[in-house]
Amino acid sequence: MTFPHPVRRALAAGAWLLSVAAPALAHNPVVECRQVSADTIQCRGAFSDGSLAPGVRLDVMSYDDKVLVSGKLDKSSLLSFKKPKGDFFVLFDAGPGHVVEVDHAEIVAGAAR
Questions:
Q1: Residue of 34, 79, 82, 21 whose CA lies nearest to 52
Q2: In the chain, which end has fewer C-beta atoms inside a 10 angstrom radius, N or C?
Q3: Beta bridge partners of 42
Q4: Local confidence band at 112 (pLDDT 50, 70, 90 cut-offs)
């Protein structure tokens, strides 16, 4: 089907506007981890648009890339685990381009919000 020149221009402009607006709709992963007791860490995973991330994988890793704890976020997007001995980081993996790491040094006391 062939459209007249003004219609083609309008369609092209509309397609361009949609392609420019799409990144604005993107949501980035957000993870907050807190130490809720002497031996328990609680992490909450979500997205910058406010949506929760139930079922998303969260791994606790050693610096030599060994999995220390592996789990999935619950329906409230929370996962609690026993604090590992030694240095570790939390890996939140919601798919390509949606990966966040939280180093153990960034974890503060208090419940994850």
A1: 79
A2: N
A3: 34, 80
A4: low
Burial 52-82 (b: 16+ CB within 10 A, else e): bbeebbbbbbeeeeeebbeeebeeebbbebe
Distance (Å, whole) CA 30 – CA 67: 21
Q: Under CATH, which number does the domain 27-109 receive?
A: 2.60.40.1940
> Would the pLDDT of 10 be above 90?
no
Please indicate whether residue 30 or residue 14 has the higher confidence score (pLDDT). Answer: 30
Q: What is the DSSP letter of 103?
A: E
How is 34-100 classified by DSSP, letter by letter?
EEEETTEEEEEEEETTS-B-TT-EEEEEETTS-EEEEEE--TTSEEEEEPPSS-EEEEEE-STT-EE
